[in-house]
Amino acid sequence: NSPSNITIGLYNKHVDLLESSHSKAIQDIQGEHTLYVDATKSYDKSPLYKDGTFINNTNSTALLDKLGQTYYFKNSGKTRTLYKDQTALFSYEGYWGFPVDIVDTKVYFVAPTLYGSSLFCFDIANNKSFRISNADNIIDAKMVDDNTFIATTVRGKSYESIKASITFIEEAPYEIRYSFEQSAKVNLNQNSA
């Protein structure tokens, strides 16, 4: 292989590609279920498959719950929507955010804040979203129990893993406004005059 010929998939302990995973960006494995993105068809959208069956196009990583249901984000313009299989659960304005854990009816995800990124939760049973940490440097996380999580954080020139308690904050993911969005609005307004 050369740097211009990258093969994605799963490898065994002898570093041999497992042929059944060739060109599959594995997202999650739960029991007999495998969730993956077809890397050969991914450019501006990523086709998500579970056990060979197309689920939807995704704009984030994806996870499976214990029952084999899929969770991922998809964008329509600037609106980012969390899906369970092919059902929309909730949306916020923004271009990024990704699921990191699923426990019972709660989907935990990392999304933007005013000063960085943090851990949020969408409670399917109560149809409610909230921030669960005041940290603005979280880039990944996993739940330990109902009140505690372990997170990967960014610190200066390094990463750090922390164990922290949940703090419920009534706050949605922050809507980042990029300069190209303002330029596009100005150009559209000028063209329609």
Description:
This protein is mostly beta strands. Helices cover 7% and strands 49% of the residues. The protein has 1 helix and 15 strands; from the N terminus they run βββββββββββββββα. The chain has a 4-stranded antiparallel beta sheet with strand order 1-2-3-4, with no helix packed on it. The mean pLDDT is 90.
The outline comes out as globular
Q: On the 0-100 scale, what is the average pLDDT?
A: 90
What portion of residues belong to β-strands?
Answer: over 45%
Which regions are unreliable across 5 or more consecutive residues at pLDDT < 50?
Answer: none
Biggest sheet descriptor: 4 strands, antiparallel
What is the terminal-to-terminal distance? Answer: 55 Å
Number of strands: 15
* Number of helical elements: 1
Helix-strand layout with pairing:
Blueprint: E1 24-30, E2 33-38, E3 46-50, E4 53-58, E5 62-64, E6 70-76, E7 79-84, E8 87-93, E9 98-103, E10 106-113, E11 116-123, E12 128-131, E13 138-143, E14 148-155, E15 158-165, H1 179-192
Antiparallel strand pairs: 1-2, 2-3, 3-4, 5-6, 6-7, 7-8, 9-10, 10-11, 11-12, 13-14, 14-15
In short:
This protein has 193 residues and is mainly β.
Key traits:
4-stranded antiparallel β-sheet, 15 strands, mainly beta, globular, 1 helix, 193 residues
